[in-house]
Amino acid sequence: MNDDAADVPALLARSLESGRIHSAYLLSGPGEAPRHTAQQFARGIVCLGEGERPCEACDACRRSAPREEIELDGTGKRGPLYRHVGDHPDLFWLERGPDDTRVRIGQVRALQNALRLRTSEGGRRAAVIAGAEWLNQEAQNALLRLLEEPPPDTTLVLVATSSAGLLVTVRSRCQRVVFRSGSDETTSDPESAETIARLESIGAASVPDLLDWAEEYRGQRAAAAAGVETLLATASAYLHRRIAERVGGADPNVEAELAAHRELASCRKSLVQRNANPQMVAERALLALQSGVQSSGP
Ligand SMILES: [Zn+2]
User: Fold this and answer.
1) How many angstroms is it from 238 CA to the middle of ligand 1?
2) Which domains does the chain have, with CATH numbers?
C-alpha cells in the first residue's frame, strides 16, 4: 500500500475499487485534508493501474503527478480560469484565484465548455472545484446545471471547508464525505455531522430549499422512514441544545422553539404510528423547525 492511496477515505476507495463512481462528490471539512483527498481521488479516477489507485506507476499517474501549481485568475487576465492536475488533459482543477474574493461564474462556464468536448484519452474525466464555499449564487446556479446534466463519464468533486454556504440543491446531488476537524479521518457518522451543519443554516434557507431537502426522503418507504427518523432525532437534539443555550440569556423567550420541538415529536408519531409518507413528514418537520428558529431570532 502506498502512502497516497491511503489518503483516500474508505467511501472513495470503495468507489475506485468497484468502478462505481458517482457523477458528483462533496468533500467538506477544515484544513488541507479534503483538498488533498480530492486531488488523490481525481487521480485515482483516471489511473490505469490495477488494485489501489492512484497506483503511481501507470502512464496516467505519471501525467497527473502534482507539480508546481499555476495561479488562476477569475478574470482570465493574469492566469488561466482553470488548470489541469499535473498535465493530465482529463483532470481539471478550479478554484478562486489569489486575487479574487469569489470563484467566478466565468470559471464555471469555462469548465462547462471544456467538459463539453470529448475526453482526450477516451476514459473517465474528473473536475475538482476547490473552495466551493466561495462560489457565488450565480456560479452555483451554473454549477447546478452541470450537476443536473452531468457530461458522460465525468465526475465533479467539490471541496468546501463547510457545505453550509452551498445550495441545498447542489449538496443534495453530491455523495458527501465529511472530514472531522483536526484530523484526516472522516467522521464515523458523516450524515449526522452534515445534518447538523444543514440545521444550523436552516433559518436562512428558502421554502423551496426545504422542499428540496424533504425530497431527499422519497422512494422506498422503509429506507426513507429510517432517514426521516434520524433527521427528527438530530433536529430534536439540535433544538434542545439551542433552547438550553438561550435559557438564562437576555431574551429567554423560547416559546417558538418549544412549539417546534412539540411539532417534531408529533411528526415522529405520524411517521411511526400512522405510517405517514416520509417525505411529507420531513417537509412538515423542516418547515416547523425553520419557523421556530426564525421567530426566536438568532
Ligand atoms: Zn496509475
Assistant:
1) 44
2) 3-186 (3.40.50.300), 207-295 (no CATH)
